[in-house]
Every structure is written in C-alpha cells, then in structure tokens.
Automatic annotation (TrEMBL):
Residues 401-410 have a biased composition (Basic and acidic residues). GO terms for biological process: methylation; mitochondrial respiratory chain complex I assembly. Arginine methyltransferase involved in the assembly or stability of mitochondrial NADH:ubiquinone oxidoreductase complex (complex I). Acts by mediating symmetric dimethylation of 'Arg-118' of NDUFS2 after it assembles into the complex I, stabilizing the early intermediate complex. Gene3D superfamilies: 3.40.50.12710. Keywords: Methyltransferase, Mitochondrion, Transferase, Transit peptide. It is an enzyme of class 2 (transferase). It comes from the Eukaryota. The gene is Ndufaf7. This is Protein arginine methyltransferase NDUFAF7. InterPro entries: NDUFAF7 (IPR003788), NDUFAF7_sf (IPR038375), SAM-dependent_MTases_sf (IPR029063). One of its GO terms (cellular component) is mitochondrion. It is found in: Mitochondrion. Its EC number is 2.1.1.320. Belongs to the NDUFAF7 family.
C-alpha cells in the first residue's frame, strides 16, 4: 500500500507541499515503535497516530506543537484576525437568536496558541454593552502542557493559577478584560450548562482507522516494521477482519478505501447530548469532505508534505474530516448544518464589509497588502476557501418551532442561522 498520495496535497490542500524531508537524528520515537512492533506485531493506524502525536515523552503535540510561521503548519486565526472576529460574531448572533440566555460558556477544543479565543474575546469586549447582563466564561480543552502555557500567556498575560480548588480544571486565570478562563484535559470535565462549542482544526488530528476493500472483503490497514529494512515502517493489510472492521464500516459503504475516526464520533455524541440537554451550539471548522474521499492521511513538517511513516514524532499527522460521519454520530439529538465551504461561510458573515472597513482605516501600504493577502488566503478556492468547511450542531427548536405543526401561522419565523445564511445584523 502506498503512503498518502501527494494528491492529498499540502495541509491547505493547495498542492503547496514539497518533497518529504529525510528523517533527522530524532529517532527515539521510531526506536520505541520498532521495539513495540517487534514484540507484539502490527498496530492500527489509529494507535500509530496516537503514539506519534501524543506519547507523553516523544509525541509531536506534547513536545513540539508546531503551529504558526516557525512551526509545521499555519491555521486561519494565525493568518488574519478577521477570521476569529467573524466567528465571535457568529456566537453572539446565535446567542441573540436563542433569546439571550444569561450564561454563556465558550468552550474551545484544542485551542492551538489561543489566537482564535483571543480574537473572539476582542469582539465580546467590543460588544460588551450587548453582553452586559450575561455571565461569560471561557473553557479550553487542551492536552498539551506546552500549548496551554502559550494560551495562558496570550489570553491572561501569563497570570494563571494551577490546580484551582474549585472546578475540575487544571488551570485558571482571567482574560485581560476580566473574563474567567479554565483549562481541562477532557471535554467531560467541562461543567454542564448553556455552552457554545468551537472546534477549529481539532477533529483532523484525531486518530483514524484505515480500511481497504479486498477480494476477501474489508481489511484494516496496519503499520508494521519492514522485515527487509531495519527500523523502517510500512503499511500492511490485516490477514482477517479486525474488531474495528466489524464496528466501523457502514453496510451501505460504496468506497473501496475508508478512513474512520471513532474518537470524533464519541466527541460529537457528547457535544450533541450536551446541546440537547443544556442548549447552545457547536461550530466545527476543518478541512474535510462529506463522505466522498478515500485516502487523505498525510504528514507535515516545516510546511511541507512529509511521509507519514518516516521519523514519527517529528511531524504533524492529519486526515480529512468526514462530515457525513459526524452528522451520523449526532444521532438526531441535534440538528446539523453544513458542511459549507469556508469562503461561503465567511462571505455570509460579512467578511467583504469587514475587509473594506479595515482597508479604509489602515494608513500604510504594507498593512493594506497584508490584509489583501490574508483575505486571499482565506477565501481563494485554490487556497483555503474551498477545502475548509464549516459545520454546526444546533438544538432542533432553533430551526423548527416545537409546536409548529399545530398552528404554523401563529409563530414568527425563526431568524436564519448566520454563516449558513446571510448574516442579518440589526
């Protein structure tokens, strides 16, 4: 089996990837995996990803966490503040459409450096008069000690208290504008209550299982040591069906190669049941497809494509999000919207108007060029505009009046959901 094709292109799916780099001297993770494979045989791709990304000693995220210009990939919030501002407006618009409840928990899964939350909090501050009677708090779900330190510096100026006595949080602080911020290792630890969830480039890094249709039926793709070349890894097919093959392949599947992310399914189930019970909404932004793609597993190092099996622990591993699977896993507990292309979502949110205002207010050519460049990066179909998607989970009553079937004419129409329709700003 080949490793992920170059057609899966770079992380921004723009074909900007270069050649994979040679492994550096950083072989501790490879030696650890090689010992494990020799002792107990091949592992699933999911187990390989989990080790390579989150192994406490040598994992890529636990040790490096390469976001930004100097890291291995750049995310939309790092490109432009407008991205985060428009997402902030989306949450406020939904909060208003739901009748301005008096508590507002913003819960971000995998917040990177904290740039996105920082941009959202700036919008909340600008609209402080609208939110004045609302109890706003921020809850970050982050496993990486390195990234949580970066987030703390960006959001609180580094003034945080580890292991606060209340809450199941491992760290607590206040934003520059006085909003309480809590850190957790797991979404289960976030207190229940009316919450808006955000997952930006979160699901794409969760471990996937890979399956291949063969003449003998479905087989799982596994990672093993190459008997011909010491300390080199290779893909092999399971000799018979594995438990994952039994559990994760849908009977109606027509593709011959499928990637499934069970962990994403579990998280979506949790989000859906929380929203069903306590209200709120979830916004997911990621690159992905609606159940059409096959082999999207790829690696990134220094902004270039990197062979997924070479020098594990030194590169970011990622796979496209299957939104059709997320929709299935919401199990009808909530309504789902999307996936809708990033450029459509941002256009609906008024990015063109925001850009115009910023261009008018910017004094120098360099700033204007930077604004136009970042707009192009986010909106150009060849760059991020078409391959990133937005997807939302909302309570059913947000889209359909619960008692509509009795007296449909007596109810005022529900406001459209911003981003998925044009934003109506009163």
């Amino acid at each position: 089996l080949p490793t992920a094709p170059a057609a899966a292109a770079a992380r921004l799916c723009s074909g900007a990837g270069g050649e994979a780099e040679a492994a550096d001297g950083d072989g501790a993770m490879l030696r650890h995996l090689a010992r494990k494979l020799r002792a107990s045989g091949p592992v699933t791709v999911a187990e390989y990803m989990r080790e390579a990304l989150t192994n406490p000693g040598q994992g890529y995220y636990t040790r490096r966490g390469g976001v930004g210009e100097s890291g291995d990939f750049i995310t939309s919030p790092e490109i432009s503040q407008v991205f985060g501002e428009l997402i902030g407006i989306w949450y406020i618009s939904e909060w208003m459409a739901m009748g301005k409840p008096n508590t507002f928990q913003l819960v971000e899964l995998g917040p990177g450096r904290g740039t996105l939350t920082d941009d959202i909090l700036r919008v909340f501050n600008q609209l402080a008069s609208v939110l004045s009677k609302c109890d706003v708090s921020v809850h970050l779900v982050e496993v990486s000690p390195k990234l949580s330190k970066m987030q703390a510096v960006m959001l609180t100026g580094g003034k945080v208290q580890p292991n606060p006595e209340d809450k199941s949080a491992y760290m607590k602080g206040f934003s520059k504008t006085g909003i309480p911020i809590f850190w957790y290792r797991d979404i289960q630890d976030v207190p229940p209550g009316y919450s808006f969830y955000l997952a930006h480039e979160f699901f794409d890094a969760l471990p996937i299982h890979k399956f291949q249709q063969t003449r003998k039926g479905w087989r799982e793709v596994l990672v093993d040591i190459d008997p011909e070349v010491p300390d080199q890894l290779r893909f092999v097919l399971s000799p018979s069906r594995t438990p994952a093959t039994q559990n994760f392949i849908q009977p109606e599947e027509t593709r011959d190669h499928v990637e499934v992310c069970p962990e994403a399914g579990v998280i979506v189930q949790r989000l859906a049941s929380r929203i069903e019970k306590d209200g709120g909404a979830a916004l997911v932004a990621d690159y992905g497809h609606d159940g059409t793609k096959t082999d999207t597993f790829r690696g990134f190092r220094n902004h270039k494509l990197h062979d997924v099996l070479s020098a594990p622990g030194t590169a970011d591993l990622t796979a496209d999000v299957d939104f059709s699977y997320l929709r299935k896993m919401a199990q009808g507990r909530t309504a789902t919207l999307g996936p809708i292309k990033q450029r459509e979502f941002l256009k609906n949110m008024g990015i063109d108007l925001r850009l115009k205002v910023l261009l008018q207010n910017s004094g120098d050519t360099a700033t204007r060029e930077q604004l136009l460049h970042s707009y192009d990066m986010l909106m150009n179909p060849e760059k991020m505009g078409d391959c990133f998607n937005f997807f939302a989970l909302l309570p059913h009553h947000r889209l359909v009046h619960p008692d509509k079937k009795d007296k449909p004419e007596s109810k005022p129409p529900l406001p459209p959901v911003a981003g998925f329709n044009e934003l109506l700003l009163k």
